Amino acid sequence: MSQEVRVRFAPSPTGPLHMGGVRTALYNYLFARRHGGKMILRIEDTDSQRFVPGAEEYIIESLKWCGIEIDEGVGVGGPHAPYRQSERKEIYLKYAKQLVEAGWAYYAFDTAEELDVLRKDAEAAGQTFAYNYTVREKLPTSLSLSKEEVEERIARGDIWVVRFKMPENEVVEMDDLIRGHVKVNTSTLDDKVLYKSADALPTYHLANIVDDHLMEISHVIRGEEWLPSLPLHYLLYRAFGWQDSQPQFAHLPLLLKPTGGGKLSKRDGDKMGFPVFPLFWTSPTGETAHGYREDGYFAEAFVNMLALLGWNPGTEQEIFSMQELIDNFSLDRVSKSGARFQPDKAKWFNAQYMHHKSDEELAELYQPILRENGVETTDELAGKAAGIMKERATFIGDLWDLTSYFFVAPTTYDEKQTKKYWKGENPARLKELREVLASIDDFSKENTEAVVGAWIAEKEYGMGQIMNTLRLALVGAGKGPGMYDVTAFIGKEECLKRIDYILENLKPIE
RNA sequence: GGUCCAUUCGUCUAUCGGUUAGGACGCAAGAUUUUCAUUCUUGAAAGAGGAGUUCGACUCUCCUAUGGACUACCA
User: Is A266 part of the annotated catalytic residue set?
Assistant: First the structure.
């Protein structure tokens, strides 16, 4: 690529960023890094009505959590600052006027209410109202009104908008890096609003093109929902005379609901029992939504899962670090069709990352949970316990259930296991085993296993009966790792204590 | 309704004209095991339909069907 790669992620702060947005950001980031380019974060807050306090901070924190680094933009600054469109307000009017003067746009004085009426009337007549070449010279616009009247209306403070003057019958030919060649006839398009005088702000279309141009964006990688407005954007580049430096476009397939039936939306999450947001979210009105982070997902697993939803490396590798994603990413391996999000797969990815964590990493993550449960222990022991059981866990939060008996002696016993093993000769045998254990000096896993194994063999006892009875005493249930993992972990003294406890406190089943 | 995009196992996907259509998740069975798991092995499971082009089509073209997006003074 001869030209410097500059991509942008340009969310609108209308609420928490959902996972589809995170994926768009991720693909932009991977593409930028892959080509040694820059990743820009621009906040598109041109809709004052829908602005949600806290959303911008949420977006920034989400990207940070995911490891998506911003080179330029809101929060980090850069040569094209400001990167928040509300702070660039004064830039856009000039460009809107430039378009009007060049005959590519015009003023329109309709009120929102008037347009609503026109739409309703058309609907009632079984038609669709389109603001386009068929009506723009009949409605109050600078195309139908005299120059004087237009100036007068503007001067006296009538509200107006600038609309793009969509050519009447022209085929726009476009190229998309993912979809290939696309053609659209402009007659099917309408005259989009580019600028609104009421709040002195541009709409997405104008702000987007102007900023992408000013910020020297080389590639626009965004969701497929923008594909229908691509012809307008092409025409805008042409109207401004910027077609030579126009960015290349790539429209990403959508993320669909697990059930099919539509794109994943902000409301789907809690309804279907999985998070749709990266981070926990509290809206200004107090509503909350689950987040992957708080639900126990590792950022690396979340990113890995998202990366593979709509892109694949062409090999059978599925586990990728961020660096591996960067090294392998390319837009031509992005699929064209929407990808249904599957919560089960997300869990699987998390489990994979869990299994590969070191004891040290696990200790750090697990300690807070141990403390919550009233356990004070060393990082070494926390990590060791987690390490023994990690392969059975999907989330860090699973570990407590899986390892609590390493730290806390059972005082109640699982009913099923009790009925099965706390009967017959087993209690007496456990007493014998206690003495065997008491005589062992080297309580390591290997030695204990050798001594106890030899004893069972010599006595010709049933391995299953002995071990499960011991398990009942030490764990309190029919679960857990190999018995000698437990004995070695809790140590001789604690072992004997737990055996004594069950012998004294649990009545054998007759 | 209109415009545009898409369509391989239930799901995510590989295949870039010639394959027994491969992998992963999930599911089922078996093996291992002192328990619960893990793990391992195996299995079931797909080219939407119809025309063409071609020696040959999942792959190219067209039609149909289905799904989706867009159709705001929202992004």
Answer: yes
pTM for the model? 0.94
**Nearest-nucleotide field for A163 (CA, C1'):** B73
Separation of A481 CA and B59 C1' (Å):
50
**Strand pairing category for A161-164 and A339-340:** unpaired
Q: For A117-223, where are the E strands, in sequence order?
A: 161-164, 171-176, 180-185, 193-196, 201-202, 219-223
Whole-number average pLDDT of chain A: 94
Quick one: pLDDT band at residue A436, thresholds 50, 70, 90?
Answer: very high
Which pair of tokens denotes residue A174?
Answer: 């476009």
Q: Which helix (H) or strand (E) holds A384?
A: helix A379-389
Tell which phi-psi region holds residue A244, choosing left (phi > 0), alpha (psi between -120 and 50) or beta: alpha
Q: Do the beta carbons of residue A487 and residue A450 sit within 8 Å?
A: no
Lookup: nucleotide whose C1' is closest to A182 CA: B4
Question: Which bases of chain B are under 7 A from a protein CB atom?
Answer: 1-8, 10-15, 22-26, 34-39, 67-75
Which domains does chain A carry? 88-252 (3.90.800.10), 357-407 (1.10.8), 415-505 (1.10.10.350)
Distance between CA A331 and CA A340 in Å, rounded? Answer: 19
